[in-house]
């Protein structure tokens, strides 16, 4: 691992397009500003790894779990729905609540 | 029209489902970018998010609002820009479901997949308030 010393407000440039800047140092907490192109995902490592691990566990090869599903679906107390859902729901179907942005 | 109805409607014409693109893939599956969202009335309200070129790469997904009606992931400005979302109505949030060996199931509220319904492009995001959500939120089942 490359190790560089930086002072407050100093930066490093990665690949000519990613800038990592030391924004604040407060005891053992360092605030880092990262400017990267939109196609470069930036995540806290522990959160990234937690979600990555969960994705791997969630992988359902060949949709094999489908046989196990109906029981679960019937039991899931989801939002009220008709007993037999029409292939195409009527236009009056409730809008899915949008995410707060 | 909710997303299940929308996808079922699309699936009537396209049995292969609704094509969606995740330009950055899913975390751990960064190389797989093209997916189909497949509705099956037998598993409603769940959907399949299946890699377009690999039926063995499939995830069971669910609108998180089916589980937590007041779920409110806060998306960063960068994510909103990446997704090209111009209004909340344009977004569709899906959570990945994990079937547990114990027989139960969990939903990932910490890393939801957010789609732009207009462009059918999406991203698995980590909301800025992710710390308040579980990656393994238990799917409630009636005993």
N- and C-termini, Cα separation of chain B? 31 Å
Q: Mind telling me the CATH class of chain B?
A: Mainly Beta
Q: Ranges of chain A with pLDDT <50 over ≥5 residues? A: 74-97
Largest interface: A-B, 48 and 69 residues
CATH architecture of chain B: Roll
Total of DSSP H or I helical runs spanning 4+ residues of chain A: 2
SSE series of chain B = HEEEEHEEEEE
> Secondary-structure element order of chain A, as H and E?
EEEHH
Main β-sheet, spatial strand arrangement of chain A: 1-2-3
Question: What's the mean pLDDT score of chain A?
Answer: 75
The amount of helix of chain A comes to 10-25%
Shape of chain B: globular
Q: Helix/strand-derived class of chain A?
A: alpha+beta
Oligomer: heterodimer
Strand content of chain B: 25-35%
Overall, the morphology of chain A is elongated
Gyration radius from CA atoms of chain B, angstroms = 14 Å
Residue share in helix of chain B: 10-25%
Number of strands of chain B: 9
Question: How are the secondary structure elements laid out?
Answer:
The complex is a heterodimer of chains A (101) and B (143).
Chain A: E1 11-14, E2 18-26, E3 29-35, H1 45-58, H2 69-75
Antiparallel strand pairs in A: 1-2, 2-3
Chain B: H1 3-13, E1 18-21, E2 34-39, E3 47-51, E4 54-62, H2 77-83, E5 91-99, E6 105-107, E7 113-116, E8 121-124, E9 137-138
Antiparallel strand pairs in B: 1-2, 2-3, 3-4, 4-5, 5-6, 5-7, 6-9, 7-8
Give a nutshell description of this structure.
The complex is a heterodimer of chains A (101) and B (143). With 101 residues, chain A is an alpha+beta fold.
